[in-house]
Amino acid sequence: MSKTVILAEKPSQASAYADAFDHSERKDGYFVVSDKEFSHAVITYGFGHLVALFSPEDYHEEWKKWDLNTLPLLPTEYRFKVSDGKQKQYTIVKKHLDEADTIIIATDGDREGEAIARLIINLSGNNHKQLKRLWINSLEKEEIKNGFHHLRNGEEFYSSYKEAETRQIADWLVGMNLSRLYTLYMQKNGMKGVFSIGRVQTPTLYLIYQRNKEIAEFVSKPFYELYGRFSHKKGVYQGKYAGRFDSEFDLEAFKEKQEISDSAPGQITSVKTEEKKQYAPKLFSLSDLQATANKRFHYSASETLKIVQGLYEKKLVSYPRTDTNYIGRPEFDYLKNALPSYLNLVNETIAEPQLKENKRYVDGANVQEHYAIIPTRTLPNLAALSQKERNIYALILYRTLSMFEKPYIYDETTIETTVHAVLFKTTGKVEKVMGWRKFYKNEKEMKKTTEENQTLPTVREGDAVASHFYTKERKTQPPKYYTEGTLITAMKNVGRDAEDEENKAILRETEGIGTEATRANVIETLKKQDYITLQKNNVLVTPKGETLCEVIQNDEIANASMTAKWEKYLKKIRNQEGTQEAFLSSITNFINHLIQKVPGTFENSAIKKHAEKGEAVTAMGACPQCRKNVLDKGKFFGCVGYREGCTFTLPKKWSGKTLTKKNVKDLLSKQETSLIKGFKNKKGTPFNTKLKLVNNKLAFDFPNPK
Questions:
Q1: What's the pLDDT score for residue 284?
Q2: ω into residue 72 within 30 of 0, thus cis?
Q3: Average pLDDT of the residues in 544-553
Q4: Where are the alpha helices (DSSP H) in 218-317?
């Protein structure tokens, strides 16, 4: 009897698949399932990446040590192994794959999911077997059943796997070689620690650094604007002159030259009223959802992805790692049919639902791998969701409901008032149909827009008005700090600011740097590397991040355009227009180029000043022996003057108690600490006391020596 093995990405996904079969039985690391179509099948799973690339030392023992003489690290072939701690599950998966006649790849429906499955299949030695592909957009039972009834040929997705594998190898090459290269030169110049370099993370860091630098160097300047308050028999309204002035003197000189004074007669020279329509925002892609959730709730990009992934696994929303804002006709049809249920769920109404397809939202030509993030047919019990899940689900649901509401319609009236040939412009609007905006009436942005629009009197062209003029002083404003939400958007739209037209086109074509599924992880990596930090939702570069950026600012690794060119070629691999060999050859050439260039980069940088500055920032205090800095050395605290013979050190742990940095700073500045609780004597008995320095040696300072 032939055996079919279904390979899922993780246990929760496998469990959802098993629920869609008529019969299922859970075993250790797999499910046995059956129905009319599959008389005997096994669903097994990974825990994400069961397989990983070799570490450098797996290729050559001498590659374990970070040494400039071993660079570049260029394996003759790229090999994979079972990821650390995952041998047990891999053994279970391999056993079933070995017994399989047909393998159904049922990992996430994207490039990474394809690579996760194929790498397991390859390592297990089963890539010669018949491969089928499950391709679905939600984990609802009916969608899963339909997907298994319409399996696709595995060969259709081979090029997506090669693209993902190539990206993985390229990131390994860049990370392993350039992290060692820059770190070792940093350390040669007095810096401490490891400086991680990445194909996407480094240009992203430089993007943040440039914005932070713009803000730091920004000099706010005052400017002045001229306003008129015009009185008509039907009412009063304000108008603004389009120009701005650098000083009050310039403004007053302008008024004098144009004879602008309160006694000057004014005339209405134009009155135009135009009906305008504003359609609801497009449906959510992942990056749009991350940006909105960060703005509304201050959720990080990775937190939003985690929440929406959880909603997907609860079968409440469609596949989240999507880069499109469109759905196809089938999705529109089910949303249309479920519309009353969605409205009832949140106690909303739509008087006249827009039930015809609108290409702003429904366009199958713009749906590639997956469609936009929308609610599934499965309605949640909102009370059973966490607050964060409710928030994200509501964002998705209301964005979808807005598609069925009328556009926001208003009359915009523009009045042009002329005083001695000087034109003052007034704009006001009258709302006619709230449409989709009724779902957002309590939002700050919507309320602010409404408040800023003045109600205008009914006037006609040629009417005379009395005038009163006044001045407003304003200041030029610096750019805003990136938040995680605006950073995600900036990564996606980075091409808009490129100066070179070719690079701008490439960045636009590749949708910036990173992918929809990886940008959140890139930001988290920058946090973990201590390159960026968050302050009131603003993304700031740390001193460590600044140091790296100032060193690499003229190196290609900082340039988003370089990453975009790589992304463009990776896309060619997916479209079977390029090869892995050609791409990795270009990466190798790039690494060799930087190995030659970087020594000169450091000669021309102010790295030694950064090292001294960094040392001063991280110092625990002054050494009591030689007055140089005492630093955290990892396993102990030690003086930087050890090369000149200074022997002063302090332990990290003393009598069973780990010393805090405050304890160490107190010892260096005051020669003693405050009371410390939790020491233990040789018998394990706890006691409390102070510590002090006696002849530059650590000692207890008991209040009562007895």
A1: 97
A2: yes
A3: 90
A4: 248-258, 286-297, 301-313
Band (615; pLDDT cuts 50, 70, 90): low
Cα separation, 35 vs 322, whole angstroms? 31
Question: 102-106 and 130-133: which strand pairing?
Answer: parallel
**Could you give the CA distance from residue 226 to residue 257 in angstroms, rounded to a whole number?**
14
Q: What share of the chain has pLDDT > 70, as a percent?
A: 93
pTM, two decimals, is: 0.83
**Dihedrals φ, ψ of 414, to 5°?**
-120, 120
Among 60, 81, 49, 50, which residue's Cα sits nearest to residue 176? 60
- Label residue 451 by pLDDT band (50, 70, 90): very low
Report the SS3 class of residue 277.
Answer: strand
What mean pLDDT is predicted for residues 503-523? 74
DSSP characters for 405-461? SPPEEEEEEEEEEEETTEEEEEEEEEEEE-GGGGGGTTSHHHHHHHHHSPPPP---T
- 163: nearest Cα among 209, 124, 219, 113: 113
Residue 699 φ then ψ, to 5°: -150, 160
Among 290, 292, 359, 284, smallest CA distance to 328 is for 359
At residue 660's C-alpha, the angle toward residues 654 and 662, to 5°, is 125
Cα separation, 172 vs 220, in Å, equals 44
Q: How far apart are CA 113 and CA 8, in angstroms?
A: 9
**CB-based burial label for 149 (10 Å; 0-12, 13-18, 19+):** exposed
**Burial group, residue 238, by CB count within 10 angstroms (0-12, 13-18, 19+):** middle
Please report which confidence band the pLDDT of residue 71 belongs to, taking 50, 70 and 90 as the band edges: very high
Task: Give SS3 for 53.
Answer: strand
- pLDDT mean over 583-590: 94
Report the DSSP pairing between strands 266-278 and 408-419: antiparallel
Q: Between the CA of residue 295 and those of 304, 327, 373, 435, 540, what are the distances in Å?
A: 12, 25, 18, 23, 17
pLDDT of residue 568: 83
Which of 16, 299, 38, 301 is closest to 143 using CA atoms? 16
User: Tokens at residue 553, please?
Assistant: 């600012």
